[in-house]
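Whiteboard transcription, Tuesday session. T.W. wrote the structure tokens on the left side:
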């Protein structure tokens, strides 16, 4: 299956909402819910417009992972500190595409863009029970940093942290 990554744009909102709504239960098995408000289309559009503002300022980059059928995932570089060339990464793959190498290929495509974006170091974290995500990171050259507990959306979770350096 051929995939591409494409920066988020306003015209993607309808399809992105459908993707997020369709995969909500699956995503919430791995990480705490974004809350019911997120799945109100008007709120969703406002939140994503704010993301586009961040993207326009170069503070974050939000990519859609697509195949010929449409959106199958997301991959984002956030909290970019341009002077230091550091940021954090996050990604999510739709349930129907898990175990098909999509996350690994999308991450590889994104890492190829890092020079142009001025990124030299990327931090990543995944829950300790998300072994597949840990394998995706390690396959793409991320190195284990530590395991620690953290509160996310009011929930105590254990995370594995990784670092990638150019």
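and on the right, the sequence the group agreed on:
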């Amino acid at each position: 299956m051929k995939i591409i990554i494409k920066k988020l744009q306003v015209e993607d909102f309808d399809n992105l909402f459908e993707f997020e709504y369709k995969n909500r239960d699956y995503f919430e098995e791995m990480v705490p819910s974004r809350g019911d408000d997120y799945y109100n289309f008007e709120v969703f559009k406002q939140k994503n417009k704010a993301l586009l503002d961040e993207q326009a300022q170069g503070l974050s980059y939000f990519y859609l992972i697509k195949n010929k059928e449409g959106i199958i995932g997301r991959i984002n570089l956030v909290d970019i500190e341009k002077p230091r060339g550091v940021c954090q990464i996050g990604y999510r793959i739709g349930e129907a595409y898990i175990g098909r190498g999509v996350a690994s290929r999308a991450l590889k495509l994104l890492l190829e863009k890092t020079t142009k974006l001025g990124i030299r170091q990327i931090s990543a974290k995944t829950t300790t029970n998300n072994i597949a995500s840990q394998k995706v990171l390690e396959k793409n050259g991320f190195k284990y940093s530590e395991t620690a507990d953290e509160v996310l959306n009011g929930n105590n979770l254990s995370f594995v942290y990784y670092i990638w350096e150019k």
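Someone added at the bottom: DSSP finds six helices and seven strands in the chain.
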